[in-house]
Write a structure and sequence with these properties.
Helices cover about 10% and strands about 40% of the residues. The protein is mainly beta and about 325 residues long. Keywords: Hydrolase, Protease, Signal.
């Protein structure tokens, strides 16, 4: 957990919506008006909380994330994913998977990853942050100091707090809580007394003695609006109300972490098994053109890939003095 963020990296990719072999389901919110049962709450939500391990350069850091939907999207903080490092998602039962990089909203410290939906046991049921009150009880689930997924309890200490995260990053209406948030809790869910998601743990105030009871979370309503744009209309899987579920079409992610190269987009890392890896993309490559037009930057590339035609799009990669153009089809019919 940290309040100052230095990374300026952003991710250029589209969501990969995968089929699943066994149906996952949302953790259920408890009925309103009942006394909260911390044991039942933790047992219901913990399977949807994951540990995110970031390694590289001889160092290893640990953060938290949680499953957002049945498509296998994992939400966490942007500073947790440590751009350029190798990421591992560890489920509550000990299984590990390598995620694909999807997208980030760096200015809000929000990131979304993709795991195989077949591996996703559940996702966190969402509440809303519009009716929150100062003084109401909350719970936080995360992996403090990497010792294991843990539960802490507190109250909402304040609402609509403007929080400066450094490097131009800011949350205008953060939730303030005194629930224990420590290094490793970043990206974990903040829950109301019913076990419904109301926010994502993001930052703490650094106290001189090393202890702080002032933590901040991104409100769930802001998460929903932001993720709708990051995942995109084609990447979202609507929950069917008849309870039967549906198998989405298969999508292949481009799967690169990139930065603006002025002009073009420089590849910083390539997700193992991603579409970009299959195309032979490597860190240091610069994507100069999408179709017949130059690429202005990451935002431009992401928008154009999102609105590609049915025949896909040609991308031109520059590696040193050599360039090559490849056909990229990010969507295909699936059952």
């Amino acid at each position: 957990m940290r309040a100052t963020l230095n990374t300026r990296m952003i991710v250029a990719s589209l969501a990969a919506v995968l089929g699943w072999s066994s149906p996952a389901q949302a953790s259920a919110c408890a009925p309103g008006g009942t006394e909260p049962d911390p044991v039942a709450l933790f047992e219901a939500v913990a399977p949807a909380v994951v540990t995110i391990e970031s390694s590289g350069g001889g160092a290893k850091t640990v953060g938290t994330g949680f499953l957002w939907d049945r498509a296998g999207h994992v939400v966490t903080n942007e500073h947790v994913i440590r751009p350029g490092r190798q990421l591992t998602v560890r489920f509550a039962d000990g299984r590990t998977v390598r995620p694909a990089m999807i997208a980030v909203a760096a200015d809000l410290d929000i990131a979304v990853l993709q795991v195989d939906a077949a591996a996703a046991p559940a996702w966190v049921a969402r509440g809303n942050s519009r009716s929150l009150k100062v003084g109401q009880g909350v719970f936080a689930i995360g992996n403090p100091y990497g010792i294991g997924v843990s539960l802490s309890r507190g109250i909402i200490s304040g609402l609509d707090r403007p929080v400066e995260l450094g490097a131009g990053k800011r949350i205008d209406k953060a939730i303030q809580t005194d629930a224990s948030l420590d290094p490793g809790n970043s990206g974990g869910p903040l829950l109301d007394s019913r076990g419904c998601l109301i926010g994502m743990a993001t930052a703490v105030v650094a106290a001189p003695a090393g202890l702080s009871r002032v933590g901040f979370a991104v409100p769930v309503d802001l998460l929903e609006r932001t993720l709708a744009g990051l995942i995109g209309d084609a990447g979202r899987v609507a929950d069917k109300v008849d309870g039967k579920g549906e198998n989405p079409g298969t999508r292949n992610a481009l799967g690169i972490m990139a930065e603006d190269a002025a002009p073009g987009v420089r590849v910083v890392s390539v997700a193992p098994g991603s579409r970009a890896a299959a195309l032979g993309a490597k860190p240091g490559d610069v994507i100069t053109h999408a179709g017949d037009r130059p690429v202005a930057g990451v935002a431009d590339l992401t928008a154009r890939l999102k609105h590609q035609g049915p025949d896909g799009m040609r991308l031109t990669f520059q590696r040193g003095k050599t360039s090559r153009t490849v056909e990229v089809l990010l969507t295909s019919a699936g059952s």
